[in-house]
User: Fold NAD(P)/FAD-dependent oxidoreductase from Pseudomonas fungipugnans.
Amino acid sequence: MQTFQVLIIGSGFGGQCAAVNLLKAGIRDFCLLERRSFFGGTWCQNTYPGAAVDVPSPLYSLSFAPYRWTQMYADQAELHRYTRHVVEHFGLRDKVRLEANVERIEWDDIAKHWAVHTGSEGTFYAQFLINATGPLSQPVIPHFEGQERFQGKTFHTNNWDHSYDYKGKRVAIVGSGASAAQVIPAIAPDVQHLHVFQRTAHWVLPRADRTFGRFQRWLLGLKPAYKLLRWLIYWQFETRVIAFKYSKPAIRMVQRHALHFLQRQVPDPKLQRKLTPDFTIGCKRVIVSSTYYPALQRPNVSLHSREQGIASIDASGINTLDGEHLDLDLIIWSTGYDATDGVISYPVSGKNGVQLRDVWAQYPRAYLGTSLPGFPNLFIVTGPNTGIGHTSALFIIESQMNYILDCIRTLKEKDLRSIEVRPEAERTYTDMIHREMERTVWKSGGCHSWYQSKSGHVIAMFPGFSFSYYRLTRTLKPADHILS
Assistant:
């Protein structure tokens, strides 16, 4: 019988952060379940050309694991190395079970534990369960008539096929969001022709990247210097919430800056119009790139707007809405993830057999974005309304750990077996979240984005300062919970 005090599902930064915090709390009886054949999550899975972080590396890192970064915005390869650094430094490798794909989980109210059913690795049991699968782990590929007949190569950016040589090929990339904006400049110089299918234009801001010299990297190895730099970057980025929520003049100023950047980089008025969004900046994820606009102006790159979008796909390529046929060798799907309604991809059965999919039928919701009534001892890392559009997601993840570890510690001290949030506490919290959301650009900015669920509620984002979330998660509120 594979029994642990704590099971962590997912081995990305969320899972690693949970594991290290458990170790610091003196809890060693835990296991990480990873569905893939390798440890590490997003930055080991997303290996597409040009992949990089869009938050400065000293902030996009775990506070307890400083690192001598080579550049301000780390690329995928360096983030992969950082992941390995965390795993090795804290001895996590022996705590993971690879190729353990979770198929369903069930709460046993008599035994007061979770049963986690996997495919090849069998069933695991644990008193506490931490879901750290992340919001960007379920790729979405839209359906077009005839796409199964295409004889060329296709893949999603999340599953880049490095065995396929795209050089000299006729390529289409479907999507123009954050991943596409990184892929396009990386592959455009090497392909015969690149067709970019843009459903909606995105706001773009310049990327203030820089390479760290030897002395600067030495400074990053000093904990006080690293901590100081993290906090300087943190407060610089934290002010962005003022524009996203509190100040229309501030967001108009940022939008003017983005518009001037577009005009400077794209002199052609016709292309400018194609690339000018019709919504307020921030409503959708802002792209941070200084190479995206220049790549779109290459002679071997064609930008297809919504009116020139995909009508159907056949054996040899794409038929566009304006009657053109494009012969292609490769179609790249850069079409995002199910980051709201698909926060947890496997079936979850709580107390009395209640199904999570039924609880979330209207829209996903959770107390502190972390726990749910009727699902004791279950904690969701980067759950509903924990996304952060202006700073590092890892700050939010570390804040969640305060709450999760406090729950586990409290049960241990009281010699109890389960904890769950009260329905009224979750309802009060969720009502507050969506009341505050009405004031944000994510709700009122005039767009439909992946931040929103099918219901129209903004599910991905937290509507305020990240330090406000930290304060909410800092200590457990016993009155909000049922302990047994």
